[in-house]
Amino acid sequence: MNTFAQIKPIAQYDKVSYYSVCIEESQLSIFEEFLQNHTEKNTNKLNHILEWIKIIGTKYGAQSHLFRPEAETADASALPPKGIGRKPHFIENHEKKANNLRLYCLRANENVVFLFNGAIKTTKYAQDCPNVRQHFKLANQLSKSIDNAFINKEIVWNVDFTQIDFEKDFKLYY
After folding, report:
1. C-alpha torsion sign, points 86, 87, 88, 90
2. How far is CA 49 from CA 54, 70, 80, 135, 156, in A?
3. Considering the entire predicted model, what is its pTM?
4. Do β-strands 91-92 and 172-173 pair in parallel, antiparallel, or remain unpaired?
5. Which residue among 50, 57, 74, 98 is least enclosed by CB atoms within 10 Å?
């Protein structure tokens, strides 16, 4: 546990506040790295995930069934949710398809989500995929550290559990 991250607010919608983390001294969060990495290479897949982020944030809240369970050592999740029949659909070659781009995250509650990083998943299990393995592992490490920070009151909930608060110089060790 000698590597640290700092929490960075990403977006606020009516129903969900999104956060990410910056590793070490980076000014760019790992979610922003995800956006940079996939904006040109996987535009349609990325836009599908961004649409889910917006819909969850504005319409549904972060309900557990809207996330893929990706827990190994902590309660990590991923987007997009399972099921090609769910709107918004991912369309490729004029057909509904499964989106294999994964964005790993932590659903802290129905109002707060931490967005991490991800990649194209090419195997059945994230642990076996050379593309997503590192993102899956990091999401689980960060999720565990964030959960511990809540327990230790280093991260605290606001009055109605819709946002979090932490010291400006708080470092999350993982």
Report:
1. positive
2. 9, 16, 6, 16, 28
3. 0.96
4. unpaired
5. 98
Contact 55, 88 (CB under 8 A): yes
Give tens-digit pLDDT for 106-154.
999 999 999 999 999 999 999 999 999 999 999 999 999 999 999 999 9
Token pair, residue 166, equals 């932490």
Which DSSP state fits 52? Answer: H
Quote the longest CA-to-CA distance of the chain. 50
Secondary structure class of 67 (helix, strand, coil): coil
Q: Amino acid identity of 164?
A: I
**Which residues, listed in sequence order, are joined to residue 92 by a DSSP beta bridge?**
95
Q: Are 108 and 146 in contact (CB under 8 A)?
A: yes
- With beta carbons less than 8 A apart as the criterion, state whether 84 and 98 touch: yes
Other beta carbons within 10 angstroms of residue 20's beta carbon come to: 25
